[in-house]
Amino acid sequence: MSEKTIEIVENTISRRRFIATAGLTAAGLAIGATTFGLAGCSTAESVSEAPILPWQYKELDPLAAAKRGYDGYFEGACCYGVFDSVVGQLQDRVGAPFTGIPTAMMKYGEGGVVGWGTLCGALNGAGAAISLVTDSETYAKVINELMAWYTQTALPIYVPEGQSAIVTSVSNSPLCHASVTKWCDAAGFGAMSPERKERCGRLTGTVAGKVAELLNAVAAGTFTPSFGLAESVTGCMSCHGKGAMNNTLGKMDCTSCHKPHNGG
Amino acid sequence: MSEKTIEIVENTISRRRFIATAGLTAAGLAIGATTFGLAGCSTAESVSEAPILPWQYKELDPLAAAKRGYDGYFEGACCYGVFDSVVGQLQDRVGAPFTGIPTAMMKYGEGGVVGWGTLCGALNGAGAAISLVTDSETYAKVINELMAWYTQTALPIYVPEGQSAIVTSVSNSPLCHASVTKWCDAAGFGAMSPERKERCGRLTGTVAGKVAELLNAVAAGTFTPSFGLAESVTGCMSCHGKGAMNNTLGKMDCTSCHKPHNGG
């Protein structure tokens, strides 16, 4: 057993402000203080804040992101797969403050939240990851673009090394169960089959790669949205939106679930 | 300017293992090491992991949780409101490792993810919060119960102090746009009205309070699920689920969007 000594110089500015200025996980120092007996120092309360968002992003390789997303799917499903791909790589490459977030916290999003079939977990994990590294004006635009791309693109695109491409389908919906059904109908495999799980693994990889691509574009100042909303959204919303009826909200393709009724 | 000295005793077990065993935000020590010049200690890499989930929960008052959820809605919408109510209170009361998570990361869930109308943000924020403090066998059961309760209960229940109750509605769906439409139809207010926003604020408070109640029950060892799935789920899934067709998955009430077709 060896002993090591650290000297901490306490400046005239408050510890809290110093830590915030330095962009650190203040939580950390609190731990040091409480665990290792930092006599006479500030309490945990005064140093216990994560830095304000957004945090500094570092460019990620989209292919590496796709691979980690795909692998992550088989560890903790779709939502975790995308979140861990982006945030986990930033933990590895940047360290703190990303390391204060346990990426396993997003596992609940699997199968549209513990199997309920609501929002596709890959999109949910992507939303949380994007929120960490983009400002409040940007994240909505990036997530919006991701959601529109997802619903209008034949997926999955990612093919693991040494394997072959599989059947793709356009979901017309960001919802898990609708996306799964579209693929099952196109591919002829069951929703509970290993082939469908492989499809969702590749979808997770594809979304993770797309998130890296979008965030790289934001970082480079070249991000431009290229996907519009489905036609039905503007059509149906001309009555159901802010107009005459004003009785719903959303950007999902209405006709993927509801029959168009032309004002009937 | 004053000087303070900390002594760190390095045990024969690795620092990484020691920190994991003690349940600490390892990221924190890494910061201490890099910022305050911890000579001869491990690199950031070796101590940069958040403790493995679940983290220790501390009982929350459901009414206080509801109030903070309601207030949070007006700061950062529904998903943030619930997440910040639960995790923010644990940050205040427990400190690290909860303090390593910026609760603003869940703002993206508002309006069913940046206004898309998918999963109700209150449920999404709840899922993330519950995942932090319950083990992998428990979180799915708790979230499942929350989702079933949400879809079958007349909401909102929470009434801010000094105010009156408002019209309630049963959503039959965990989806934002469906939940909003049901309430607008019942209350006679528009989806973009201040009254609907007040309803979503109270809904956020109600869900936050329910999460505290469920987590308190888990902590006390008294948690028992009491809400079953909608009848249509078992009915429709007898064909569309693992049975003959095996072409979808999920636990949402099918008939809230799709017409029952009785095998047609």
Question: Judging from the principal axes of the Cα atoms, what is the shape of chain A?
Answer: globular
Cα distance spanning the termini of chain A: 80 Å
- What helical percentage do the residues of chain A reach? 40-55%
Q: Which strand-content bin applies to the residues of chain A?
A: under 5%
Characterize the structure shown:
The structure is a homodimer of 264-residue chains. The first copy, chain A, has helices at residues 15-22, 26-35, 62-93, 121-133, 138-152, 176-187, 194-220, 231-240, and one strand at 2-10. Helix content of chain A is 48%, strand content 3%. Chain A has 264 residues and is mainly alpha-helical. The radius of gyration of chain A is 22 Å and the shape is globular. In chain A, α3 (62-93) crosses α4. The N and C termini of chain A lie far apart (80 Å). At the A-B interface, β1, α2, α4, α5 and α6 of A face β1, α2, α4, α5 and α6 of B. β1 (2-10) of chain A pairs antiparallel with β1 (2-10) of chain B.
Question: What attributes characterize this protein structure?
Answer:
disordered N terminus, 3% strand, mainly alpha, 264 residues, homodimer, 48% helix
SSE layout:
Two copies of one chain form a homodimer.
Chain A: E1 2-10, H1 15-22, H2 26-35, H3 62-93, H4 121-133, H5 138-152, H6 176-187, H7 194-220, H8 231-240
